[in-house]
Amino acid sequence: MSTQPTEAESAFAALGGHETFRRLVARFYEGVRTDEVLAPMYPHDDWDGAEERLRLFLEQYWGGPTTYSDTRGHPRLRMRHVRFEVTPDARDRWLTHMRVAVDELDLAPEAEHVLWDYLVRAAHAMVNTPEPGRTPLI
Ligand code: HEM
């Protein structure tokens, strides 16, 4: 007996499923590896692992398999980023590489819009360090 997909499962399918996230994250890391600010933050002996962790997280977030939490536990993403200096500059660079990767997916406009909107909001939420040289207002 088949069951109806949940709303989240349909979102994963509507975005193109595993193949979309594989391509998205692979292209994203191509950019990150060339980025003078971001590249030094990543484990250079484990680029493949970093790529896999981000892909599994995004697949799970969009309603795909729950392998991320099954293997890594609760995402707690802000906590997992505390050891990195995520400045507004790092965020903008992260988003720049994501933008290139999203563009190359050639998704339908509505699917692209929801994916991009999420990535922008998530990236803004990850900032944990003010720009060097700027005094925080509070
Ligand atoms: C805003 C700028 C960001 C920077 C500079 C950044 C940087 C990093 C770095 C250096 C790592 C370690 C790589 C690894 O070994 O896995 C990491 C891990 C990770 N990041 Fe980010 N990140 C950013 C935003 C985001 C956003 C917006 C998301 C989610 C949409 C995200 C999801 C993840 C995930 C899932 C991991 C692996 C966590 C784990 O299981 O250990 N990151 N990030």
From TrEMBL:
Q: Which GO terms describe its molecular function?
A: heme binding; metal ion binding; oxygen binding; oxygen carrier activity
Which amino acids does the record list as binding heme? H124
Coiled-coil region(s): none
Q: Which domain of life is it from?
A: Bacteria
- Keywords associated with the record: Heme, Iron, Metal-binding, Transport
Q: Which Pfam families match?
A: Bac_globin
Q: Which family does it belong to?
A: Belongs to the truncated hemoglobin family. Group II subfamily.
Q: State whether keyword Disulfide bond applies.
A: no
Q: What is this protein called?
A: Globin
InterPro entries found in the cross-reference section:
GlbO/GLB3-like (IPR044203), Globin-like_sf (IPR009050), Globin/Proto (IPR012292), Hemoglobin_trunc (IPR001486)
